[in-house]
Design goal:
The structure is a single chain. The chain contains eleven helices and nine strands. It is α+β, with helices and mostly antiparallel strands and about 300 residues long. The protein folds into three domains: about 30 residues; about 80 residues, no CATH class; about 160 residues, C8orf32 fold (Roll).
Length: about 300
């Protein structure tokens, strides 16, 4: 009788498992074998406690909207993490997986988010992957190596100690740094032409990074803007970068107002090869910027909302 009873229990269990095989396996994977744990790491020293209209810092890693996904990516970059995983809970956010896939392929949006973080936490390459259980993993190759960061930090500290004094106003400090960078670097015409014509780039001339103007003496717009951003961050000045289709410059918050700051256009290329220093694009409003130029400075005001 006991054997018969045990046999019937086993048959019942087998039948139950057969009927509910998929839900049981999913439950075991999600809650036992493959727990949906989100591991929060420590922020690095270059993380900034800044929120903007387009993206904000978050501690909510259970997204319920596409904005939540953008905020997670921004937080990941801003805190300087090398990798991070979270999960799409499709029962509370049905379109999560589709939105992750869309963002993963939206290089323009990802590049824009990159503009809001410290240059040392910005990425050179960013990968977003998604598995069958809704696990989203973000990984990056950062733009600046640790060795480059250390070298630049040393140089920036040296420059600040030489040209900045405590009695300067904030505006004067920014102007002094603006002038120093321009006077000690030139626009990298050769590299700009190579990019324009899709030619092979010489990576030994990193004019697209702060190394260009501060160490090599040559810069593209991204090199100028990164160099300026490093100084602004060192001085504790809120800022981010604005990019258009073919250009990038700094956007700076002082005296409770946002201003544009474009070192590239204040260091013009002239036929005489003279190294001119201008202040036409030094801490100007959006209205002033658009009166001067509407070609290279046409930007998306739904992203850079503070610049409306």
């Amino acid at each position: 009788m006991k054997k018969t009873f045990s046999f019937l229990i086993l048959v019942g269990l087998a039948a139950t498992i057969g009927i509910f095989h998929k839900p049981i396996v999913t439950f075991l994977l999600n809650n036992v074998i493959y727990k949906k744990e989100v591991i929060i790491q420590e922020s690095n020293q270059y993380a900034r406690l800044n929120n903007f209209s387009f993206v904000q810092e978050t501690d909510n890693f259970k997204p319920t909207s596409k904005q939540d996904l953008k905020n997670i990516i921004y937080t990941y970059l801003n805190r300087g993490w090398n990798d991070f995983s979270f999960f799409c809970e499709t029962d509370i956010y049905p379109n999560c997986i589709n939105d992750v896939k869309e963002l993963a392929n939206d290089s323009a949006t990802l590049s824009s988010i990159n503009n809001f973080v410290h240059p040392y936490n910005s990425y050179d390459k960013l990968y977003i992957t998604l598995n069958n259980l809704g696990k989203v993993t973000i990984e990056t190759v950062q733009l600046y190596t640790i060795e480059e960061q250390n070298e630049l930090n040393y140089i920036i500290d040296e420059i600040i100690s030489e040209i900045i004094t405590d009695d300067m106003t904030l505006r004067k400090k920014i102007e002094t740094i603006h002038d120093y960078i321009i006077e000690n670097s030139v626009y990298d015409e050769e590299r700009a032409e190579a990019i324009k014509n899709n030619k092979q780039l010489n990576l030994q001339e990193p004019s697209h990074k702060a190394i260009g103007p501060l160490i090599k003496g040559k810069a593209l717009c991204s090199g100028y803007s990164d160099a300026m951003a490093l100084f602004l961050n060192k001085l504790g000045i809120k800022n981010y970068k604005i990019s258009s289709a073919n250009h990038v410059w700094n956007f700076v918050y002082i005296d409770e107002t946002w201003y544009h700051l474009d070192l590239t256009w204040d260091d013009p290329v002239v036929s005489t090869k003279e190294n001119l220093l201008l202040h036409d694009f030094f801490l100007i409003s959006t209205e002033e910027l658009q009166k001067i130029d509407l070609t290279q400075h046409e930007f998306d005001k739904t992203i850079y909302v503070e610049a409306k």
